[in-house]
Amino acid sequence: MHDETNRWNVTTDRSLDEFLAGDDSDEADETDETPDSDDGAETELADTDEEEPVTDEEESLSDEETPAIERDTATEPVDPETVAPAVGTYRFDPDGVDCPRCGETVDRLWLDDDEQVCKDCKDW
Question: What pLDDT, in 10s, does the model give residues 46-100?
Fold first, then answer.
């Protein structure tokens, strides 16, 4: 059963393949060229040494019109004491754990207002 409205539901585990463009990923896998193929087809990597032609839009930009990028902050060291530690937003417990708000036993909890709760109690 596939519910299209919940296709990208954050609480459901997904394969990275599902995020690729198009629904014909199985058909595309069958027709992809492999490096071991014997048909002598050249790959796009052979064309990477050639420069692409410059468009009129790119020619109209000069160095004076392009905003400068500030790089001073990238060279300054950051004091580790001033950086806030990373906070986990998700917890998985294969044995199940009770949601502190509703009491339902679930295997996944999500951070909501400094409390880990089930997907139904989380304010998405």
Answer: 555 556 666 655 555 555 566 666 655 566 888 888 888 888 888 999 999 999 9
Return the pLDDT at 2: 46
- Of the candidates 109, 87, 88, the residue with the CA atom closest to the CA atom of residue 100: 109
Name the 3-class secondary structure at 96.
strand
Q: Using the CB atoms, write b or e for 101-123: b if 16+ within 10 Å.
A: eeeeebebbbebeeebbbbebbe
β-bridge partners, 105: 98
Beta bridge partners of 110: 90, 117
Q: Phi first, then psi: what are they for 96, rounded to 5°?
A: 90, 145
What's the pTM value of the predicted model, to 2 decimals?
0.37
DSSP 43-90: PGGGGTTSPPPPPHHHHH--TTTSPPPP-HHHHSPPPGGGSPPP---E
